[in-house]
Amino acid sequence: MQRGLDRIKKYLKGSVERQKITEKESTDSVNRITGIIDFEEAAREVDLVIEAVPEDMKLKKEIFLALAKSCRGEAILASNTSTLSITEIASVSDRPEKVIGMHFFNPVQFMKPVEIVKGVLTSEDTIGSIEALALKLDRIPVIVKDSPGFASTRLGVSLFLEASQMLEEGVASKDIDTGARLFYGHRMGPFETCDLVGLDARLNNLNALYQSTSNPKWAAPLLLKQLVASGYWGNKPGSNGGYYTFFGLEKD
C-alpha cells in the first residue's frame, strides 16, 4: 500500500517539476486518496469500483466474486482491463448488468480517452453512468462492444507487431518511433509506448488475444518474449529497462 502511495506522490512531484500541474493540485490529489488494505471495508459503501489488477482472468474473477459479496447492490463494478472479456469477468458476479470495462490509457493523468466496454449483459443505465463519469473527469469516452482486445489494444498491438517485424528485418530501430511521431502525429512511437505500458503487459495482451482468437497474427514476437524473460519489463520498479535500454537508445 505504502509503495503504491509513494509512487503516486513521485509521479505528481515530477508533474509539478515539469509544470504540468501546480503544487496545490498535487497536494489536493494526494489528499483525495485514502489507502485501505481491508478489502471488505474498502468496498462496503462505494458507488463504483475500478479494478486494476494484472491481466489474469483467474485473478480478476476472484476479485469480482469478492466484490459481489462486499459491495452494495447498487454499486457499479468496472474493470480497467485492456484485453480480457468483460462478459467472462461478469459471469461470476451477482450483478452482470452492472459490470463494465473502464479502460484508462497511460499516462493516465494526461491521456484523455477512456474506453468503455459493454459486456453482453451490461445495462444501458450502467453505460450511461460510466459515460457521464468519464465526461465529468474531463475524459473522452469511447464506447465499444466486448470483443478480444476491444478497439484500443487491437490497434495498439497491430502497430507494435508491424514495428517489431521491421525491427527484426533491420529496416530501422529508433527511427521507427521517430517515423510514427512525424509521419502520423503519434505522441510516442510503438517501442516507447511499449516501454511505458510495460513489455510484460504487452506480452500479456498478445497472449490473451492469441488464446481467445487462435489467430496466429497475434503471436508474440520472439524478441519480446526473450526480453520479458530476461527482466526487461519497461519503465517500472525492478525492471532492467525496456527496448530503449536494451538497444542503448536515447529518447528525443
The oligomerization state is: single chain
CATH fold label of the largest domain: Rossmann fold
Report the principal-axis shape: globular
- Which strand order do you get reading across the main beta sheet? 1-2-3-4-5
On the 0 to 100 scale, the average pLDDT is 93
Key phrases:
50% helix; Rossmann fold; 252 residues; alpha/beta; N-(1-d-carboxylethyl)-l-norvaline Dehydrogenase, domain 2
Structural description of this entry:
By secondary structure, this protein is of the alpha/beta class. Helices cover 50% and strands 10% of the residues. It has a five-stranded mixed β-sheet, with helices on both faces. The longest helix is centred in the middle third of the chain and has 18 residues, at 152-169.
Short précis:
The chain has helices spanning 2-17, 23-31, 39-43, 57-70, 86-90, 124-136, 152-169, 174-184, 190-197, 199-213, 222-229, 243-246; strands at residues 48-51, 76-79, 99-104, 113-118, 140-145. It is α/β, with parallel strands linked by helices and 252 residues long.
